[in-house]
Amino acid sequence: MKAQTLATVSVILIALTTLSACGNTIRGMGQDTANTVNATQSAGKKVANAAN
Predict the structure, then answer these.
(1) pLDDT at 1
(2) Which helix (DSSP H) or strand (DSSP E) does residue 40 occupy?
(3) CA 45, CA 52: separation in Å to the nearest integer?
(4) What pLDDT digit, counting tens, does each position of 1-52 carry?
(5) φ, ψ for residue 2 (rounded to 5)?
(6) In Å, how far from its chain's centre is CA 20?
(7) Which domain holds residue 47?
(8) 5 in a domain, yes or no?
């Protein structure tokens, strides 16, 4: 295998690994945001119930 071909394959593998890591991070941020929204809604309901 030529050095140029090996370098090209290496760059492609590194790029794919990086992109998959970004996908996991974005998915995790979405879950964190959903959990924050749920917690905020729950706290709002508790305050509303306490006020009644």
Answers:
(1) 66
(2) helix 3-51
(3) 11
(4) 688 898 999 999 999 888 888 877 888 888 999 999 999 999 999 999 998 8
(5) -75, 155
(6) 10
(7) 28-52
(8) no
Q: For residue 33, give every residue at least 6 positions away whose Cβ sits within 8 Å of its Cβ, in sequence order, or none.
A: none
Whether residue 14 is contained in a domain is answered as no
What's the pLDDT score for residue 42? 94
**Residue 2 in 3-state DSSP?**
coil
Backbone angles phi, psi at 16, to 5 degrees: -65, -40
Give the chain's domain count: 1
The residue behind tokens 């945001």 is 33
| Look-up of token digits 């924050």 | 36
Retrieve residue 2's tokens.
């030529």
Q: Measure the CA–CA gap between 27 and 12, rounded to whole angstroms.
A: 23
